[in-house]
UniProtKB/TrEMBL annotation:
It comes from Fructobacillus parabroussonetiae. It comes from the Bacteria. The keyword Coiled coil applies. Keywords: Coiled coil. Residues 135-185 form a coiled coil. InterPro entries: DUF4391. This is DUF4391 domain-containing protein. It holds the Pfam family DUF4391.
Length: 191
């Protein structure tokens, strides 16, 4: 199991698929409510998040639309375990996913901290000195720069004229320098 749920937080109930009105319910084998992390179950205070649900979703082929559909129907913070190999969670209106080699740890002194630490583990962020929102902004910027570099690489290979290729290469170099700077900042903070 990707996450060790304390005994008092275990729920372990199967949720009927028809509650979510999926367009194609055959994509999903089973949805199980594994646990509920709340002040009454794990003895941590809640600030803005009253509880964190843990759902297990078994499906032959992963489809992010299934996760989004469940999140739309259940307006709570949910940690998804998909096929016991992938973890997913929504943060700041974005679903964050990661294939898990190890296990997720329940860490924090409040439920908000526990949720933030789940997100940090999914994004491989170890720096606790910075606010999570700021770290996610940096991760998104790194992803944006990498996407721009990939687009420029494709344009360079398709462009025939040398002067246009050189202009694209200069632009790519600027993005690469910015990406290197951001990655170096993250490495220094994570040490």
């Amino acid at each position: 199991m990707i996450i060790g749920i304390p005994k008092q937080a275990l729920v372990n109930r199967i949720i009927p698929k028809d509650r979510f009105n999926f367009q194609d319910a055959t994509k999903i084998n089973r949805i199980r409510w594994l646990g509920k992390l709340a002040p009454t179950t794990i003895n941590l205070p809640a600030k803005t998040i009253p509880e964190i649900q843990i759902f297990s979703v078994e499906m032959p082929e992963f489809d992010e639309k299934v996760i989004v559909r469940i999140l739309d129907k259940v307006p709570q913070v949910i940690l998804f375990i998909v096929n016991d190999e992938l973890a997913a969670m929504r943060y700041d209106n974005q679903v964050i996913m990661k294939e898990m080699a190890g296990s997720l740890e329940i860490r924090g002194i409040t439920l908000d901290d526990v949720r933030d630490n789940f997100v940090r583990q999914l994004l491989d962020l170890s720096d606790l000195s910075q606010p999570l929102a700021q770290q996610i902004t940096q991760v998104r910027e790194i992803q944006r720069l990498q996407l721009e570099i990939n687009k420029l690489n494709q344009q360079i290979t398709r462009t025939v004229q040398t002067n246009k290729r050189q202009a694209l290469a200069r632009k790519r170099y600027e993005f690469e320098q910015e990406l290197r700077r951001l990655n170096n900042q993250n490495q220094r903070r994570n040490k």
